[in-house]
Amino acid sequence: MQLLLDTADVIVLKDLVATGLVDGVTTNPTLIAKSGRPMLEVIAEICDLVEGPVSAEVAATESQAMLAEGRKLASAASNVVVKVPLTREGLIAVRQFSAEGIQTNVTLCFSAPQALLAAKAGANYISPFVGRLDDHGAVGMDLISEIRAIYDNYDFDTEILAASIRNGSHVTQAAIAGADCATIPPDVFASLFKHPLTEKGLDQFLADWAKTGQSIL
Ligand code: E4P
User: 4: Cβ–Cβ under 8 A, 6 or more apart, which residues?
Assistant: First the structure.
């Protein structure tokens, strides 16, 4: 399973990239706004930091304008994946991007039929928003399972990228449901290393080791 970081904060990203466990990055207009920096500059910097896919989202809503924006974003670095909203216009653009060999991540997916259309349009990634569906009163993770079954039934290559992840349990459930990737906010990513019993156990081991008076080196 590929673990992506959902951030446009380069300082935070650098810190987690140092673990060697970040496979890629996703951004969205909200995250770019939060960074307070010019989008193309941030995307180019992120692409220098990670070898894997870096999603950069178009802001246009009409397919021709999306294509123009997406081509510009894709020219920033070879690992840019153009993020396109799951609308009729968006999927028209995805079809064309696919013909041009430009990678796409279809975002704001909230239903299985939407995911089916995105795969048929040739999307490289589909981003079902698990947390926002939970907020809406649905069970977001069910959507990941439904899309997995549909894509497997028809051998679609589109990768399922679990998005809007809110906690470690979402990561576990997405992995069990067969998501190919998950994009994780930095605070949730950092929490994945931790368990209270790991900390407690380590404290005990270190205390007992100190009593031995030994040194390994
Ligand atoms: C995915 O690509 C989105 O950037 C992100 O996961 C949205 O998450 P949110 O619902 O926490 O804003």
Answer: 22, 23, 24, 25, 26, 52, 53, 55, 161, 181, 182, 183, 184
Can you say how many angstroms the Cα of residue 131 is from the centroid of all Cα atoms in its chain? 13
Q: At what angle do helices 140-153 and 112-121 cross, to 10 degrees?
A: 40
Q: How far is the CA of 34 from the centre of ligand 1 (A)?
A: 13
What value does the CA radius of gyration of the chain take, rounded to a whole number of Å?
19
What is the distance between the alpha carbons of residues 97 and 80, in angstroms, rounded to a whole number?
12
User: Cβ of 189: how many Cβ atoms within 10 Å?
Assistant: 24
pTM of the model: 0.97
Give 54's strand partners.
25, 80
- Residue 83: active-site member: yes
Whole-number Å distance between alpha carbons of 73 and 67: 10
- Burial readout 190-207 (b: 16 or more C-beta within 10 A, e: otherwise): eeeeeeeeeeeeeeeeee
Q: How many helices (H) and strands (E) does the chain have?
A: 11, 8
Q: What is the pLDDT of residues 98-156, one digit of tens each?
A: 999 999 999 999 999 999 999 999 999 999 999 999 999 999 999 999 999 999 999 99
Are 52 and 24 spatial neighbours (Cβ–Cβ below 8 Å)? Answer: yes
Architecture of domain 2-212: Alpha-Beta Barrel (3.20)
Nearest atom of ligand 1 to the alpha carbon of 131:
10
Residue whose CA is closest, atom 10 of ligand 1?
164
